[in-house]
Amino acid sequence: xxxxxxxxxxxxxxxxxxxxWRKLFGQESGPSAEKYNVATQLLIGGVTGWCTGFIFxxxxxxxxxxxxxxxxxxxLANHTGYIRVDWRRVEKDVQKARxxxxxxxxxxxxxxxTSRAQEVRPCVHKRGRHTTCQP
Length: 135
Description:
The chain is mostly helical. Helix content is about 70%, strand content about 0%. The N and C termini lie far apart (about 105 Å).
């Protein structure tokens, strides 16, 4: 037994005014743990995990196939003579890289850098005078 004035609520009109995401996810904007029960959360997590794994499996297989196929084609081209490797240049570059590693490990400066620094030093010391230093 209620007495008084009551206002009627038209749910159809209220639903039309709501944005689509509120219709889908509900009114509250809190964490999903508060919106869904455990079974629903497990189902959503399982489905999204399976989809992610499936996609990464396909992409990973495609990437591995492309990388392996490319390496195979390069080896085949090298074996048949389409590609020639200048092994002397490779050896020279490897030796240069080894020397750079030795220099970095020992802490000394390379000989080329030392001679260049010695060329620049007179120009730096004569900064007050008007001199022309050619490299």
